[in-house]
Amino acid sequence: MALEEKGALYGRLASGEERYAALKDTLGTMSLIPVLNSERTRITAATREMLVDITGTSQEVVGKVDTFLKTHLPDPQLAPQRLHEAMRYAALNGGKRIRPLLAFGAGALTEAPEEALTVVSASLELIHAYSLVHDDLPCMDNDVLRRGQPTCHVQFGEAMALLAGDTLQSLAFQWLGEFPLLEDASRQLRMVQQLALASGSRGMGGGQAIDLESTGTTLSLPELEAMHLKKTGALIRTAILLGADCSQAPLPPEEQRSLVRFANALGLAFQVMDDILDTESDTATLGKTAGKDAAGQKATYVSIMGLAQAKALAADLLSTSCDALTAFGSRGRRLQELAHLVHNRRH
Ligand code: IPE
Ligand code: IPE
Ligand code: MG
Ligand code: MG
Ligand code: MG
Question: For 287-322, what is each residue's pLDDT tens digit?
């Protein structure tokens, strides 16, 4: 069917396809490692050393989580095929897998087994993938490009994308409940509860509601911080805490408090960096439309504080998060590397 005919039928969907077609020639390859090594990466020598250090381990973690997702997501041959294709498309289209990396990093603190970390990471990625599918919908941010490819609704239509988001979310809780992760079932039940809290109305979903309601308005700094802590911070924080929880022997309370401090600071830093990148980076590097926040009149750290202050805040949050890790000595090295990665990422 010609695009114009589709346009008559689907309106916003066809315009999404057209917008994607206009963008796609400018795109490069989207993957963590090439971007870290690329000429575009403006990072200090010390940080470069750190990032290079972790790329081997990162690739291993990403490989494990991707394999789990490929194996356990419903087969695209199974009915309803189109829905299963859309779910796989949304979850397997090459994200950075930062949440799994953080879960594994925190798991290193408690010597958590990689099988449990893989299940938890895959569940986190399903929630994250669902949040992106819905975030991109025309009724939300109306984006046509994600991870260098057409967004789920551009590829599959709005209704199917909506369902793919819903069913990815359900599957996350199915996995977290059905794989035996801990001998103490009540601790595993608590993990399910933590993920639900982080993704629900008092976490990511609630933060997204505040984001929509604050579009076109100015938020105070405490309001902005509260929104970012919910919409992005909650899931990042939970990735870190669940990673450490994957061990039969959880952290002692003092160390748990340090990990919570790290997780809160890094969760906020992640969205501050996302706001900065939306302003500073280009569409080809980001794999999503640059400048979208300003165009959509979003309340962000850049719109409210300005770019220089937002960068200063990101640097402060990096040092706050690294300070919290001193409690762990050399055991916290991997999380420290990941905090630098979050701060210096280019997409
Ligand atoms: C983007 O998250 C959306 C936010 C929560 C800011 P990521 O930057 O982790 O996206 P992917 O998974 O790498 O595409
Ligand atoms: C989205 O924030 C946070 C989510 C919960 C998905 P953004 O709307 O800034 O994320 P991007 O920039 O589209 O990835
Ligand atoms: Mg959004
Ligand atoms: Mg968005
Ligand atoms: Mg953004």
Answer: 999 999 999 999 999 999 999 999 999 999 999 999
The whole-angstrom separation of Cα 130 and Cα 42 is 31
Pocket test for ligand 2, best of 149, 153, 212, 232 (most atoms within 8 A of CB): 232
Closest CA to 271 of 317, 319, 206: 317
300 lines ligand 2 (CB under 6 A): no
How confident is the model at residue 93, as a pLDDT? Answer: 85
> What confidence tens digit (pLDDT) does each residue in 82-100 have?
999 999 999 998 899 999 9
Our measurement of the distance from residue 269's CA atom to the centroid of its chain's CA atoms, rounded to an integer in Å, reads: 13
Structural domains in the chain plus CATH codes: 40-344 (1.10.600.10)
Interior angle at CA 290, CA 320 and CA 150, nearest 5:
115
CB-facing half-sphere around the CA of 18: CA atoms within 13 A: 12
Beta partners for residue 148, in sequence order = none
What one-character DSSP code corresponds to residue 93? Answer: S
275 touches ligand 2 (CB under 6 Å): no
Maximum distance among all Cα pairs of the chain, rounded to whole angstroms: 63
